Amino acid sequence: MMQKIFEYAKNTYQSPPEYLWARLPEAAVLRNPENNKWYAVFMKIGKDKLGLKETDSVWVMDIKCDPLLIGSLLEMDGYFPGYHMNKNHWISILLDGTVEEAQVLELLDFSYHLTETKKKKKI
Questions:
Q1: With a threshold of 0.85, does the pTM exceed it?
Q2: CATH hierarchy code of domain 2-117
Q3: Which residues of 88-102 are buried (b: 16+ CB within 10 A; e: fewer)?
């Protein structure tokens, strides 16, 4: 699913994934090209770090999210407080198929728009 997300972001927002950490070569971020703000972070973490009982690793996508929406999403399978991010403004989404691809892309769009400059948002 990550490859589809990366292709979508590149084609829709002209933002290819960036691999910033030598220690975590597979982890990536997507930035808004207008202002370099992150709108998604991809990392492989242990499920136990999300509060699950299993310890095997899973890919997650952290996205910016409206605090009012976060509460609703956390009630659904596949959504967790933003791992390693501000939990009031970020949410983690499992990329193991628990959350449908269409929903993931819709939330990616929402996250991207939250990073737009205020002037651009008004238009």
A1: yes
A2: 3.90.1150.30
A3: eebbbbbbeeebeee
